[in-house]
Amino acid sequence: HFKDPKRLYCKNGGFFLRIHPDGRVDGVREKSDPHIKLQL
């Protein structure tokens, strides 16, 4: 079972971890980006 989607946030840089469908990973400051919600 998955809980509600989570966002991983870096307090130091002010970025959310974003994982693209092709596997690329970067950071973004926009809370509304659909690729920052993770099923953990």
From TrEMBL:
<dbReference type="InterPro" id="IPR002209">
    <property type="entry name" value="Fibroblast_GF_fam"/>
</dbReference>
<dbReference type="GO" id="GO:0008083">
    <property type="term" value="F:growth factor activity"/>
</dbReference>
<dbReference type="Pfam" id="PF00167">
    <property type="entry name" value="FGF"/>
</dbReference>
<protein>
    <submittedName>
        <fullName>Fibroblast growth factor 2</fullName>
    </submittedName>
</protein>
<comment type="similarity">
    <text>Belongs to the heparin-binding growth factors family.</text>
</comment>
<dbReference type="InterPro" id="IPR008996">
    <property type="entry name" value="IL1/FGF"/>
</dbReference>
<keyword id="KW-0339">Growth factor</keyword>
